[in-house]
Amino acid sequence: MSTTITVFKGDGIGPEITDVVMEIMDAAGADLDYEIFNVGAAEYEAHGELVPKAAYASFDRTHVLLKSPITTPLGKGFRSLNVTIRKKYDLYANIRPAKSNKAVKTHYHDIDIVTFRENTEDLYMGIEEMVSPDEAHSIKIITRRCSERIIRSAFNYAVAQGRKKVTCVHKANIMKLSDGLFRDTFYQIADEYPEIKVNDMIIDNTAMQLVMHPNQFDVIVTENLYGDVLSDLISGLIGGLGLLPSSNLGHDYAMFEAVHGSAPDIAGQGIANPTALLLSACMLLDHIGKPEVADRIRGAIDAVLLDGTIKTPDLEGTSTTREYVDAIIARL
Ligand code: NAI
Asked: For strand 245-249 and strand 93-99, is the pairing parallel, antiparallel, or unpaired?
């Protein structure tokens, strides 16, 4: 049965990778109807709105969104659209699975880490003020309610997926109240899951441990900012941002996007790696009950990467996006 999903095309490499991801899903027999909208900085400049009302109305209806990256101005200008969408639809669980692919050469082997990043509070609430021309304040908010729901999501996932361990990452030695609340909540909820091993780690040590001994990590649960930084670091363990997908889940809505940004440095050159968005689309297909289509696409990605002749430049290849996409479609 065909399913309707909403698609937001964004900025930079966004439109190029979104088009080919839809092409691959169609070729794999996903049987989707798309409601497609331009959103982001370019749309804002052209029509004065970051997200057209019809685009929000579509997501309100379909409850499932495939979103491409969007450019966010630095230091001034509009609030990050990503943050806005996550808040508006209460997409509190940002799930980022990073798995080594044998075909992609890195210094690391057998990485299999799933990061659960809290998506709705922390410094990302954007509560900032200039208290004088020379002093800016940014307020960090951590609540028990939001901590509980992301931590519980991580444990439920661990149980459902047969994972062994959940690590809580924080900085409670310095932010004793806010990060202390997050860490305390973690251990309270951990008591409900005696079959899962738990530990906690300070964010700076975690950064070092991830580089030195990454295989000790299984599921990581952490606050918004730490999750953002760590997941880019973790992407480096498996071959870079071109490979890391994510889902953003709430009770009623689900959004799927690559972890990377709009990559303006390579936009329009036809060399972007669409794999991260494609794997995000596979998470979407799992979510809407089409896991066999998702597995077919994942299989084709693995086959092409393993073959090794066709790789985009971020994976030290020389192929174009088009060549890579054609190779995947041929393998489906
Ligand atoms: P970025 O993730 O766009 O790029 C970082 C580096 O990784 C660049 O060298 C880029 O060429 C490379 N890269 C990223 N994705 C790639 C892909 N699919 N294939 C090949 N290479 C890839 O981060 P950057 O440059 O810091 O941010 C650019 C813009 O993206 C900013 O405006 C930022 O706010 C925005 N951004 C948006 C996100 C989103 O919409 N979810 C997430 C992160 C950043």
From this structure: antiparallel
Is residue 124 flagged as an active site residue?
yes
76, 241, 246, best to mutate for ligand 1 pocket (most atoms within 8 Å of CB)? 241
How far is residue 203 from each of residues 48, 118, 180, 216, measured CA to CA in Å? 40, 15, 13, 15
Return the structure tokens found at 167.
């690590």
E-strand stretches of the chain: 3-9, 32-38, 64-67, 93-99, 112-118, 128-132, 135-138, 165-170, 197-202, 219-222, 245-249, 254-258
Q: Is the CB of 81 under 6 A from ligand 1?
A: no
Quick: pLDDT tens for 267-321: 999 999 999 999 999 999 999 999 999 999 999 999 999 999 999 999 999 999 9
| Alpha helix ranges (H) inside 218-274 | 224-238
- N-to-C CA span, the chain: 20
What amino acid occupies position 267?
Answer: A
Distance CA(132)–CA(69), nearest Å, equals 34
**Is the whole model's pTM more than 0.70, yes or no?**
yes
How far, in Å, is the centroid of ligand 1 from the Cα of 176? 33
State the average pLDDT over residues 169-173: 98
Q: Which residues are within 8 A (CB) of 13 and not within 5 positions of it... i.e. 6 or more apart?
A: 68, 69, 262, 263, 266, 267, 272
